[in-house]
Amino acid sequence: MSPEDRKELISDIITALEAKPSPSLSDEEHRWVKMAIQKEAQSIELRKAIIEKTLAGLVWMVIVGIGYVFLDFANAHIFTKQV
């Protein structure tokens, strides 16, 4: 391919790409896209909040469980009455 042919091919490609009209959205479509993006962001935030609350609940459950085991151990071995 000669340099002139290559330049001609490049200019033809550029012309073809520029001639293609870019799709534009109507006002209604633009509003719908914004609402869809907002809905997705809210969904992500909700999922994040659920995960945080679940993990906090699990941590408290472990703390209470460890306390219960310690209290049971203390009642069985430490606080027994010596008769």
Which residues form runs of ≥5 with pLDDT under 50? Answer: none
Strand content: under 5%
What helical percentage do the residues reach?
over 70%
The secondary structure category is mainly alpha
Query: Mean pLDDT, rounded to whole units?
Result: 90
Question: Strand-and-helix sequence, N→C?
Answer: HH
Query: Shape from CA axes?
Result: elongated
Description:
By secondary structure, the protein is an all-alpha fold. It has a domain at 28-83. Helices cover 83% and strands 0% of the residues. The protein is built from two helices and no strands. It has helices at residues 3-19, 27-78.
SSE layout and pairing:
Blueprint (H helix, E strand, L loop, with lengths): L2 H17 L7 H52 L5
For this entry, give a set of tags.
2 helices, 83 residues, mainly alpha
In short:
The protein has 83 residues and is mostly helical.
